[in-house]
Amino acid sequence: MGDNNAKDDVENGGGFGLWTEQVEEAVSDVDRTMSFTRTYQQPPRHKVEEYPAMQTLLLAYQSLGVVYGDLGTSPVNVFSSTRLTNLTEEDLLGTLSLIIWTLTSLVLIKYVFIVLDANDHGEGGTFALYSYICRHINIRSKFSIRNTRLESDEDMTYYSRGSPLRTRTRKFLETNPTAQNFLTILVLLGTCMVIGDGALTPATCVLSALQGIQSRSSKITQDHVVWISVVLLVALFAFQHCGTSKVGFSFSPIMLLWFVTNVSIGTYNIIKYHPSILKAVSPHYIVKFFSRNTKTAWDLLGAVFLSITGAEAMFADLGHFNKRAIQLGFSFVVYPALILTYAGETAYLVKHPEKISDAYYSSLPDPVYWPMFVISTLAAVVASQSMISASFSIVKQSLTLGCFPRVNIIHTSSKHEGQVYSPEINYFLMILTVGLVVGFKGGVELANAYGVVVIWVMIITTFLTTLVMLVIWKTNILLILGFFLPYMLIESIFMTSLLNKIPQGGWVPFAISAFFLIIMLSWTYGRSKKSAYEAERKMSTRELDEMLSSSNVYRTPGICFFFTDLVNGIPPIIRHYIQNTNSVRETMVIITVRTLPIKTVLPEERFNVGKLGLAGVYRCLVQFGYKDSQDMKEDAYVNSVMAKLQEHVDNMNEKQRIQSAAQKGIVFVIGRTILKANQGNGMLARFTIDYLYRFLQKNSRAAVSTLEIPPERTLQIGMLYEI
C-alpha cells in the first residue's frame, strides 16, 4: 500500500531531504533581499536509487545481524514469561495462535508491507515519518522541529518538489499551532522511547541467554551471570566503531546459524511431540482461549507481545540498509523461522507443561544443549545490535531536525548514507546498559521492563503512518480506516495489558525515556527561542549599508569569512561585531554551511553566492555531501569562493577589489551565542534556558565543529541573547 505513490512522490516531487544541524531557519518569512542567487544550470531531476539484485541480497543477509537479532531471539523469553499454570493443550494452542497472528498482523503486514513504504529518502523511524510529513505540510509553530527550505534547492540533483495536494487535514495542521505542537511532542516521545529501548534491550537479551546456564549447573550464581553479561556488553559496544557493514558481516553468520538450528530443532520437536501443532494457525483457537480464560488471557498478552519486540527496529534501522532488503530478510528467513521455533516449543510443552518456566532451553534435545547455549548467547549479543544501530540512526535524524544536542556523527560507509556511528551516544548507552544490569542484578524487575515502551512506539507509528496515507499517499478513506482502526484497537489492547508491569519494573524504560525527553524538549525549546530572537533582530540590507557607510567604521584590508547558521537574513551578531570593533574587512563574506543527505555535492553546486547591499559584502551558502572533506585550511577553498564571487560580479573594478583583498590577509570569524532568560519569562522557562539549555550548549559540539578552519586565523565573537 502506498509503494507506487511513494515512489512517484520521490521521482516527481517528494521532498527536500534532511540537512545537518548547521542550518537554522528564521521563523519569519524569507527576506527576499537576502535570498541566494542561482549560479548554475539546472541539473537532471533526482531519481530513486535502484539497488542491483545481488547488492539487495547482500544487504538482506547483513540485515540478519543488525536488524533481526532482538526479534529473532524472542523465543527464549516468551513462554517463560507467561507464568501460566495447569496448562491444557487448548491453552497452548491458543497461546501459539496468538503469537502467530501477532507476528503476522503487527510485523509482517503492518511494518514490512505498509510502514516501510513511509520512509524519508530511505530513512525510517518516527523522525523520518515526521520529516516525510513536513515535506508536504508547512509546520511553523514556535515549538515545532526545524524544517528548513531554500528556493535554490529546487535546482539541485537531490531535491524533489512537494506534492500540490491540499486536503482539509493538511490545512488544519498548517493553521493550528496546538496540533503542530502535539505532533512535535508525539514524535519526540516516540524517539525517546526507542532510545530508551536501546539501553534496555542489550541488558535484557544478554542476561536472558546467560541465565540458561544456571539450569545445568548450581555452581553458577546470579552474580556470575551478571558480570559475564557486563563483559560481553562492554565488548559489544567497543565493537560499534567498526561500522554497520563490518558489524553486519560479523554478526550475520551467527544469526543465520541461529535461525537454521532453531528451524531444525523446532521441526524435530513438532514431529516428535505433536505433528498437528500447526493447526494453531487457525484464529478460532484465540477466541476459545479468551472465552475460557478471560482475565488470565488478557494478562498473557504482555508476554505474547515479547514475541514482536524488535519489530520497530526494522523501521528505525531502514537507513542502514534498504526497504527491499529488510522485506526479503523478514519474509523469507525470519518469519518462517520464528513460526517453526514457537511451534516446536509449543509441541514440547504439550507433553511437558511443567517446563514452561524454562521452555526454550528445556525443549532443546540433550545432545545439542551446549552448542545451542553458545549460539543463543552469541545471538543475544547480536540481538542488542538492532536497537543500538536504531539509536544511532534516530540521533542522526534528531540532529538533522535540530532537536538534539550536537554530537559527533561518523558515516561508516561511502555507499549507504544511513550507516552511522556516534561515539558519545555509544558510550552513554554502554554506561546506561551496564548500570541496569548491575543495578537490577538480572532480577524480575528488568524482565518486566522489557518491551513496555515498544507498544507506545508502535501506536505512535500507526498514527503517523495514517497521517501519511491521508495527506501524502492520497489513499482511499476506507483503506485508511481499514488500517487505522484495527491496528489502533489491537495495539491499545496490548498496551492495557502491559500497563500491569509498570509497578513491577516497567517504570524503568519510562524513566529513561523521560530523561531523554527532557533533553530534547530543552534543546528544541532553546533553539526555537534562539531562532525567534534572530528573526526579530536580524539586520536589513539598509541597516548594514548605513553602518558600513558611517565614518566611525574602518574598512581594514583583507577578507573576513563570517560563519553563521542563520540561512535567511543577516544575523544580529554581525551588528554586535561591527558596533564593538568599529571595523570590517574591505571584503566580508557571510557563510552558512550545511551538509546534504548525499555522498558528495557536485563542484558546480558547492557554492551559492549573492551580494548584500554595498560593495564588498556577500553571502555564500557552502554545501557538502556527507563524505565530502570540509577542509577550509587550504588556499584552494578560498580561491574557489573568490572565483565564484567574481563570476557573480559584473563590475570589473569590484572583481579586481575581490582579487586584491584575498592577497592582503584572511580571517575566519565564528559567532557564538549564549542565551539568558529575562525576568518576563516564567520560572520553568527561565530554568530551562538558564540551566538545562545552557548546560547542553556548553557540552555539545559547536555548529561548525566539523569544519577544518586554520586556528591561527580564527576569531570567535560572543553575544548574549536575552530572550
Secondary-structure blueprint:
Blueprint: H1 3-13, H2 53-66, H3 69-72, H4 89-113, H5 126-134, H6 168-175, H7 177-210, H8 222-238, H9 244-273, H10 284-293, H11 295-304, H12 311-316, H13 323-351, H14 359-362, H15 369-400, E1 410-411, E2 420-421, H16 423-440, H17 444-449, H18 454-473, H19 477-498, H20 507-537, H21 541-549, E3 554-563, H22 572-581, E4 583-596, E5 607-611, E6 617-625, H23 635-648, H24 652-662, E7 666-676, H25 683-698, E8 714-722
Parallel strand pairs: 3-4, 3-7, 4-6, 7-8
Antiparallel strand pairs: 1-2, 5-6
Helix pairs in contact: 2-9, 2-13, 4-10, 4-13, 5-18, 7-8, 7-15, 7-16, 7-18, 7-20, 8-16, 9-13, 9-15, 10-11, 11-19, 18-19, 20-25, 23-24
The oligomeric status of these chains comes to: single chain
Spatial sequence of strands, sheet with the most strands: 5-6-4-3-7-8
Helix content: 55-70%
Radius of gyration: 28 Å
- Low-pLDDT windows of residues: 1-49, 158-166
Q: What kind of sheet is the major sheet? A: 6 strands, mixed
Q: Can you give a write-up of this model?
A:
- It is a single chain.
- The protein has 723 residues and is an alpha/beta fold.
- It has helices at residues 3-13, 53-66, 69-72, 89-113, 126-134, 168-175, 177-210, 222-238, 244-273, 284-293, 295-304, 311-316, 323-351, 359-362, 369-400, 423-440, 444-449, 454-473, 477-498, 507-537, 541-549, 572-581, 635-648, 652-662, 683-698, and strands at residues 410-411, 420-421, 554-563, 583-596, 607-611, 617-625, 666-676, 714-722.
- α7 (177-210) runs antiparallel to α20 (507-537), α10 (284-293) crosses α11 and α18 packs antiparallel against α19 (477-498).
- Residues 1-49 and 158-166 have low confidence and may be disordered.
- InterPro entries: K+_transporter, K_trans_C, K_trans_N.
- This is Potassium transporter.
- Potassium transporter.
- It comes from Forsythia ovata.
